């Protein structure tokens, strides 16, 4: 009988984009420099009890002053693209009126350096740092904020459109709306489920208006998208109550955005689920048509699956992986129970499950078959440390990345049009409500000195990015990572 050879490596398409990602408030620092004013995250982080250890992003990794060093690290690793976000209060400090040239000059210098190093810049307009003045005027629950966002998008495109060819409007609007305005574990820390639903709609509307503004000011070949943290929701069992619980979470986690953005309407089951809270009269005639704008791809952020069941006597949303609060981020789904999926976990307590990414990509192809996909964030936090030799060996992260990249490869082999992958994150950084206690970076940051130390995973990922080939096993300094990259099963030895 014929002998079947086990593949030694998995080759990705030659056109596949390999990148890494960051966000402005998490790395830039320079909170009051060159005209920047407070964002909602500045205010939230300075509020006692909101962020672990009282940490703030005032200095972060000081990327605002060390950007050239960080670009050099990316160039040395061999990544081909860098997804970063613009700080809205650095570009337009009050959220209204003209831009600040010193703020824009920072991004001009950054993008020029990236292009000089053959790294394609990918700009995200909004990664959660709403100017505080706009929050004081009502924030995302107010329709005017969507108008302001479109004006800001136009300013950014006018300034950087000659350098940046790929743009993302919003990063994870679910977090902005439901963690920011319902559970309160993110800025601005409000706990009003109706305000959260209003915020979700106005984030959708802001996205639609911003896409139109970008298209009006960018070259015809520019790529425009949005990034969603689409939850891969699984029912605990096949019982009717669990299946319906998964439907409800899918509606409030995913289809509240994909419905209007990609199909031009809010799902009817979502409206029914939340009818006791609101009649959705804040959705005006023409809104959904304006929200549904043609996109060049869909940005997908994935970390872990979501496992749910129905009939809970009290909410267990504290087990949903999104932080602890007495208030739920799931309007209309208070009796849904959340469960930790089986298997190993990261330092965030999130289950490691590459199959969730594979299944999610196949689902998106089925739902939106003509829309290309881009993995705009994927990665993991572990308890990294510098060893006596001055190195940071992180075999768990390598195993995580290898398993998830294998899952992406399997999806591509199954016909899913995945155009690229951005590792989260380039640097250890300010991890929102966790402060500096969680390390997602491929590069270790010693916060007192700002020193950067590429971890073993950075070197491993750089090899994959340069070659476009995923090995089935990888040796690292502090242990062997082995596994079958065709299945996504990886173990630590």
What does this structure look like?
The chain is built from 15 helices and 18 strands. It is globular, with a radius of gyration of 21 Å. It is α/β, with parallel strands linked by helices and about 500 residues long. Strands 2-3-4-5-6-8-11-12 form an eight-stranded parallel barrel, surrounded by four helices. Its EC number is 3.2.1.21. Belongs to the glycosyl hydrolase 1 family. Keywords: Carbohydrate metabolism, Cellulose degradation, Glycosidase, Hydrolase, Polysaccharide degradation.
How many helices? The count is 15
Distance between the termini: 33 Å
Contiguous runs where pLDDT drops below 50 for at least 5 residues: 1-6, 474-493
Strand residues, percent: 15-25%
- Please report the total strand number as a whole number: 18
Helix % is: 25-40%
List keywords for this structure.
beta-galactosidase activity, eight-stranded parallel beta barrel, GH_1_N_CS, alpha/beta, three-stranded mixed beta sheet, single chain, glycosidase, 493 residues
Topology record:
Layout: E1 9-11, E2 17-21, H1 24-27, H2 40-45, H3 63-77, E3 81-85, H4 88-91, H5 101-116, E4 120-126, H6 132-136, H7 143-160, E5 166-171, H8 173-181, H9 193-217, E6 223-228, E7 233-235, H10 240-263, H11 268-273, H12 287-291, E8 298-301, E9 306-309, E10 337-339, H13 354-367, E11 373-378, H14 395-413, E12 418-424, E13 443-446, E14 451-454, H15 456-467, E15 469-471, E16 474-476, E17 479-484, E18 489-492
Parallel strand pairs: 2-3, 2-12, 3-4, 4-5, 5-6, 6-8, 7-9, 8-11, 11-12
Antiparallel strand pairs: 1-15, 9-10, 13-14, 16-17, 17-18
């Amino acid at each position: 009988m014929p002998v079947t050879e086990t593949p030694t490596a998995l080759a990705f398409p030659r056109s596949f984009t390999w990148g890494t990602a960051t966000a402005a408030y998490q790395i830039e620092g320079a909170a009051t420099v060159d005209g920047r004013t407070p964002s909602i995250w500045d205010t939230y982080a300075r509020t006692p009890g909101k962020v672990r250890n009282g940490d703030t992003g005032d200095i972060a990794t000081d990327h605002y002053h060390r950007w050239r060093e960080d670009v050099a690290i990316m160039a040395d690793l061999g990544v081909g693209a860098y997804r970063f976000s613009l700080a809205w209060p650095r570009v337009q400090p009050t959220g209204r009126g003209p831009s600040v040239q010193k703020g824009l000059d920072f991004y001009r210098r950054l993008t020029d350096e990236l292009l000089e190093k053959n790294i394609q810049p990918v700009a995200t307009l909004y990664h959660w740092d709403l100017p505080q003045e706009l929050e004081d005027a009502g924030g995302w629950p107010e329709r005017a904020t969507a108008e302001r966002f479109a004006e800001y998008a136009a300013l950014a495109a006018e300034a950087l459109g000659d350098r940046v060819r790929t743009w993302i409007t919003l990063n994870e609007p679910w977090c902005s709306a439901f963690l920011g305005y319902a559970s309160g574990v993110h800025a601005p820390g409000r706990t009003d489920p109706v305000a959260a639903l209003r915020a979700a709609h106005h984030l959708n509307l802001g996205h639609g208006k911003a896409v139109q503004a970008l298209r009006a000011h960018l070259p015809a070949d520019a790529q425009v998208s949005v990034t969603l943290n689409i939850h891969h929701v699984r029912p605990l069992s096949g019982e009717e109550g669990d299946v319906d619980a998964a439907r409800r979470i899918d509606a409030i986690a995913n289809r509240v955005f994909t419905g209007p953005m990609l199909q031009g309407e809010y799902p009817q089951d979502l409206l029914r689920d939340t009818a006791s809270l609101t009649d959705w009269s804040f959705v005006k005639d023409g809104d959904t048509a304006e929200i549904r704008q043609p996109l060049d791809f869909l940005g997908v952020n994935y970390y872990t699956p979501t496992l749910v069941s129905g009939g809970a006597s009290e909410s267990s949303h504290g087990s949903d992986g999104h932080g602890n609060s007495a208030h739920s981020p799931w309007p209309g789904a208070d009796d849904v129970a959340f469960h930790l999926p089986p298997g190993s976990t990261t330092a965030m307590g999130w289950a490691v499950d590459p199959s969730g990414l594979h299944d999610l990509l196949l689902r998106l192809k089925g739902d939106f078959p003509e829309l290309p996909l881009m993995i705009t964030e994927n990665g993991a936090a572990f308890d990294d440390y510098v060893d006596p030799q001055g190195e940071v060996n992180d075999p768990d992260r390598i195993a995580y990345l290898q398993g998830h990249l294998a899952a992406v490869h399997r999806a591509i082999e199954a016909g899913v049009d995945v155009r690229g992958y951005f590792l989260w994150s380039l640097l250890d950084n300010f991890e929102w409500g966790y402060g500096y206690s969680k390390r997602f970076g491929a590069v270790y940051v010693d916060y007192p000195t700002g020193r950067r130390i590429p971890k073993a995973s950075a070197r491993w990922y750089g090899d994959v990015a340069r070659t476009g080939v995923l090995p089935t096993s990888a040796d690292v300094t502090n242990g062997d990572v082995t596994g079958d990259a065709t299945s996504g099963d990886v173990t630590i030895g």
